[in-house]
Structures are given as structure tokens and as C-alpha cells.
Amino acid sequence: MSGTDADVIDALVGITPGSPLDAIRARRPEARAHAQATYRALFAPESPGNVSARERFAVGAFVAGVHGATAIADCYAERLAESGASAALKEAIDAAVKEARTNGPYGRYPAGPLSREDTAGSSYRVGAAIRRTLGPRLAAAFEHTHMLVFHPRDAAPAALQALLDAGWSTTDIVTLSQIVAFLSFQIRVVAGLRILAGRP
Amino acid sequence: MTTPTAFTRAPLDWLPWLEPLAADEMTERHMASLVDAARVKSPYFRLLARDPDALEARTRTDKDIFYNADAGLPRAERELAAAATSRFNGCLYCASVHARHAATYSKREADVDRLLDAGVTADLGERWNAIVTASVALTATPSAFGPEHVDRLRRAGLDDLAIADVIHAAAFFNWANRLMLSLGEPAAAAGP
């Protein structure tokens, strides 16, 4: 996953030209092309705005890591290293993944008939040592990311305020949200197609 | 404004928690990122237009997964996968839209309502059960989707293109649910 031209989903699933899954993906050519275009827009943007490459790949490695998608996490970590990030940041992300991993989805509903489906689970707070390496902006992003990945129905305006307070602009928050949400898609397409490919 | 407290097929409004772009401050690039010009009325799409390249690619991915009519899974069942994913993640807004579509295309309103009311373990007949179960397994974090889901979908009559459609429809709603749930909230639509 070093360039932005090779199709990332094909590479992660191991789809080779002429294979059955290559033919299946070719039947949905716009979805294939624009999943890749989304990857480019979020990880090699023409106008990066205020969200740095280091932040984009750090969040990418964290999202894939907490999904237990090791091979995908390694790809984003590799791009993170290429962006000039320190080895200490990589170690902090690995440590954050360890303390943040859980099982989802859980969370609460607005009070009413759905309350019987409320499922308890924790909100993630980045540990002090990791926070020192991540810095306040990335630490706030990781805490928000954990909610988006594992308990998105607990979302509330206060979560967005925490990002604003940590220096994320409204536009930055849209980009961060798209990164986490898109990866939730990419990781599942890869997981699903790998299973399908393994069951000829 | 009333916050809905149950899953429904009724149309809901969606209110942003962050400021969308104002329609009159949108550039040509922002407008093009909406893909459908009528979406300028939607605060959701005007908010996402703050990152226009990501929005446009998202929308074109969405349209091909759900609207591409070249074989594979029938439209009703792509919508079923979207509704089941939204039901499991807890996105009342997304579930309302796609339950409505699933009911429209399948004419199985009672089954769709069972999914909304009883949840993803409701008995909807084996073919729909297989699609819902596979969508839910893929939606779990970490994913619980396995060879047994592929086998069950095949036994229910799905070919591999249709199974890939289930995977893409469920995966896409893991994208859409997270945006809808975290950037704003549903509200009961204003009455006449």
C-alpha cells in the first residue's frame, strides 16, 4: 500500500487480474473506482487543509488496529512512517490499540422503548503516557474514533465540542469522521471478500 | 422538535450538530460534490461538502452499490442489508430510510416492521434471515463474518455476485451510520 494508484482493496484482499473476485468487482466498476477515490481523497488529498498526513495515517493505523485488522493496520503504519512520523508515535499507537480494543457495537438509545436494548460499555480515555506522545489533538481524535468505531449510538454534541476544544475545526471534524467511517467500510469489504475468496 | 425513541419506517428529519456550509457560500466544487444538485437542500450533505472530494467519492460508491441493476442481489435485499446494519448499529435515521426502501421494493412491509420492532434476530424467512445474519456478523467489531455465512447465503440461493453485494451493502452502512449518528440527530418530521 505504498502508492495511491494501485487499488487498495484489491491489494488487501489479494485479488489478482482474471480471478473470480476480479470479475465480481468489475461488475460494480463505480463502487470499485470510487472506494479507491475515497481512499485517495482521505489519505493523499489534493487539498489537505488542516489535517496532516501524520494525523490521517495515525488515525488509520488506530482504526484498523482496534478492529483487529492487523494487515491493514500495518499498511497505514507503513504510510505513517513514510510521512516522517517518529518510532515513538508508532509505539504510542500500538499501546493505544491495546488499551482501547473491545467489542462493538454497544451504547444507549434515547429513553423509551429501546432502553431495554441499551448495552453498557466504556468510553475510551487515552492514558497519560500515550497522551504525551500523541499530543492533545491526536489524543482527542483517538477518543472520538473509539466512540465512532465501537459505540456510535452514544454520539452527542459534547463529543464534537471535545474535538473543537482540542483544535479540530468544523471542516477538520468532517474529514476525521469520514476517515473513521470510510475505514469501517474498507475493513469490512476486505474482511468479507477475503472470506468469500477462501470459499470457492 | 421531538426525538424519535423507536425504529420507524416513517420519514424523519435530521438536524446537524455542526454548521453545514450555507448554500450561498458554496463554490462550484462544493456543488459538484453533491452529485445530485437537489441535495443542496439537505443539511447533512452541505455539512459533508466541507470535504468535497471525500463526499463525492462516497456518494458515487453508494450509488453503484445500491442502484447498479446488473444482476447480483435484488434492490430490495440490498436495502434489507442496509436496514439490518442500521438496526444493529442503532441508527434510527438510516434505518428509517432503508426500511422504507426495503418495504417499497419487496412489498413485505410486515417483515420489515418485524426487523425494526424485534431487531436483527426476528424471523423473516430463511433467505432474509441469512442476509440479515451475514450483515450483522460483518457489522460487529471485530467482524464475526465467516465461511458459515457464505455457505448459508449460497444455500439460500445467492450467487457470489449477490453475496458480494450483501458484503458491500452492509459495509457501506457501517460508513453511513457512523456519519449520520455522530454529526447530528434524527427528529420527528414536522406535521402538516
Briefly note the structural class of the backbone of chain A: mainly alpha
- For the record, give the distance between the C-alpha atoms at the N and C termini of chain B, rounded to a whole number: 14 Å
The radius of gyration over CA of chain A amounts to: 18 Å
Q: Kindly estimate the percentage of residues of chain B that lie in beta strands according to DSSP.
A: 5-15%
The parts of chain B where pLDDT drops under 50 for at least 5 residues are none
* The number of domains of chain A: 1
Mean pLDDT of chain B: 97
Helix content of chain B: 55-70%
Largest sheet of chain B: 2 strands, antiparallel
Helix and strand run of chain B = EHHHHHHHHHE
Strand content of chain A: under 5%
Helicity level of chain A: 55-70%
- Helix count from the secondary structure assignment of chain B: 9
Strands of the biggest beta sheet of chain B: in what spatial order? 1-2
Number of domains of chain B: 2
Mean pLDDT of chain A: 96
- Give me the secondary-structure category of chain B: mainly alpha
**What do we call the CATH topology of the largest domain in chain B?**
AhpD-like
Global morphology of chain A: globular
Q: Could you provide a short overview of the structure?
A:
Chain A has 200 residues and is mainly α. Chain A is built from 9 helices and no strands.
Explain this structure.
The complex is a heterodimer of chains A (200) and B (192). Chain A is an all-alpha fold and 200 residues long. Chain A has one domain (8-197). Helix content of chain A is 64%, strand content 0%. Chain A is built from nine helices and no strands. Chain A has helices spanning 8-13, 20-26, 29-43, 53-66, 70-82, 87-100, 128-150, 157-165, 170-197. The model of chain A has no long low-confidence stretch (mean pLDDT 96). With 192 residues, chain B is mainly alpha-helical. Chain B has two domains: 12-66, no CATH class; 73-178, AhpD-like (Up-down Bundle), CATH 1.20.1290.10. Chain B contains nine helices and two strands, in the order βαααααααααβ. The longest helix of chain B is centred in the C-terminal third of the chain and has 24 residues, at 160-183. Chain B is globular and about 55 Å long. The two termini of chain B are 14 Å apart. The model of chain B has no long low-confidence stretch (mean pLDDT 97). The interface between A and B is large, with 69 and 63 residues.
